[in-house]
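Input chain follows. Return structure tokens only.
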Amino acid sequence: MKRKNTDQLLKELMDSNDLSRVLSDNSACFREGDLPHGLQALFDQQDMSKSALAKASGISEVYLHQVFSGRRTPSRDRLLCLCIGLGASTEETQSLLQQAHHAPLYARDKRDAVLLFGLSHSLTLPEINDALFTAGAETLL
């Protein structure tokens, strides 16, 4: 079955009188997973300790453990710091932002454009913050 875009799915939801059928027919269209699972899956792909991740992300180890356990939901900026610390790709970062119900990075926003550049070029958090500062945008930390 061809995956539907959001507009197609929305139209089908609005036009249908049978919600359970729409949900079952389109089960592959709905996003799955939550932020702690998404972060853990990405972390498991890395060869680093949580202590090293905390340092690379500029986040305390206590807060990091709370995020991974689901007790805390990070702000958009803190989640971006985690993604940078994990060496996440742009696609992985966008997915985690979506799982946390945060706005995706938008290339037409100057600050987000700097962040997208940093992610796509595997820059470190200090390097990205320097680029943000140079561009006159708010830094992450």
